[in-house]
Amino acid sequence: MSSKNRSANPDSRSAERIRRASLELFEEQTASTPVPKSHEKRAEARFSAYDLGQVRLVHGTTWSSDSPGIVVQVRDLSRHGLGVLHLNFVHVGTEMSVGLPTRSGGVEPVTAKVMRCVYLRKGLHEVGLKFDEPLDPGRFLVEAEKASADAEGVSGKVLWLCENRESRASARALMERVGADLVAAAEVDDAVERCRDVAIDAAVFDPGADLDGACAGLKALRDAGFGGAASAVLDVSFPEDEAKLLAAGFAGVSERPTTEAQMRDLLKDLLSGEGGGGGLLSTLWGDESLRPAVKEFVDSLSGRLDLMRMAASGSESAEVLQLAVDLTRSAASMGLAPLAEAGKRVVSLARGEDADLSGVTQEVDAIAALADSARAAIQSEGGA
Q1: Over 90: is that where the pLDDT of 56 sits?
Q2: 151 vs 153: CA distance, rounded Å
Q3: Positive/negative CA dihedral, 306, 307, 308, 309
Q4: Cα–Cα distance, 178 to 315 (Å, whole number)
Q5: Is the N end or the C end of the chain the one with fewer CB atoms within 10 Å?
Q6: If DSSP codes are grouped into helix, strand and coil, which group holds residue 313?
Q7: Closest CA relative to residue 373, chosen from 272, 237, 265, 281
Q8: List of residues 6+ apart from 12 with CB closer than 8 A
């Protein structure tokens, strides 16, 4: 190829140079050796967009496919801006337009202004552009659409009841990131007052080791008129703890959220109403074909527990054991793990030659409370 021909298509040589430089940079970053950037921290979600490939930046606010411009490699994309890699310096404040390839196969022209141009190395510059009008990254990137869907529905006023100041501060920061408004309270009396003053959409209890206090606190909120869903967060959780809280009307029990994603997951069901007003709902309830079996089992619990009480009062440990084993097996099969765990505790009391049935009545009462919670959950789902 002659020198004349080589110079006839400078765009192709520029595109190949930036493709190689961008690929080298991308491989280094993937290997955890990132090139220093001037914008490590951002308040909004920004998505890697190397897959969008190379696009043409055009000076001015009018873009067309045949407009002269500069070839750049797309690096990242957000609702308000675009990061690209370019082989030359671009002045801050320059008005540009660019055609971004959409997921549907088209090209969407957008206008933007250069906000920064940072030299990286080997002639490669990072150029940051701010869109004149915000756009939806999901139109261009699948990952952005998924992230947007995950973030939907997280808005509302959430009461966070915890006596620990650091816990309340952490909850406030995470809730602000996911879009929820925190209404903090250190004591139950404070929480009751907040519910009377503000329309609370959901409540989260952070009780530490005071589970009885959490149960009493939820009752106080209900008595004060709170009708939203409530959840509890625990640093250390045992099956019996979850059973106690569910029996008291909590919609769920989870570990303490320490990341934005965990907080979003915690609040999403509560604020969307999917958490209902609390209760122990079978994990199999979503399968309509299994709902009759679940309801039949829950309806049978009263009779099962009556038989268990009678057997315990007559010191019939073998009968108590058999009833407890049957209940445990059925509860686990019907997606009611807290009930199964409660049944296991009765099994442990009734097993062996030296079985001690003195604690059976108390455990049966706890199972009865869970049964009431399970019935209430089914009714709230329209399965009465």
Answers
A1: no
A2: 7
A3: positive
A4: 55
A5: N
A6: helix
A7: 281
A8: none
